[in-house]
Amino acid sequence: MSKLHLTARFKIQSGKSDIFRSIASKCIAAVRENEINAGCSRYDWYYNDDYSICDVLETYSGNEAFFEHMNNVGAHLQELFAISEFSGNVYGSPSDALKKAMEGMDVTFLSFEAGA
Fold this sequence. Notes:
- The protein is an alpha+beta fold.
- The chain has a single domain, classed as Alpha-Beta Plaits (2-Layer Sandwich).
- Helices cover 38% and strands 32% of the residues.
- It has a 5-stranded mixed beta sheet with strand order 2-3-1-4-5, covered by helices on one side.
- Strand 2 and strand 3 (53-60) form a beta hairpin.
- The longest helix is centred in the middle third of the chain and has 20 residues, at 63-82.
- The two termini are 14 Å apart.
- The model has no long low-confidence stretch (mean pLDDT 96).
C-alpha cells in the first residue's frame, strides 16, 4: 500500500476558533492550488458544533506527496499548532524519513492489515 491516509485532530484553544478557521482556509487554498490531483486526493476539514475540535482527513499518493504537502502548508500548520493541541494518525506505510520528521508529535502510525 503506497497511499498514505491521515487523520489530524486539532483541539482549538478557547476563543481562537475564528483565527484558526482563517488560517485553515489558507491551508485549504494552498492545497487546492498546488496539490489536488498532484499527490493529494483528499483534504477535508470537519468541525464540531462549537468549533472547538477540528478533524482533517487526508490522502496522499505516497511519502513524497506528503513531504510536498508539508513544504506547501508547513508555515500555516505552525500557526495552527500555536493555538491548538494536535494529534494524528497515519495509515499505510510511512517511510522512516516521515516517521523521523514527525518525532515528538502526538502521532500514531498504523499499518494496513486487511480489508474488503
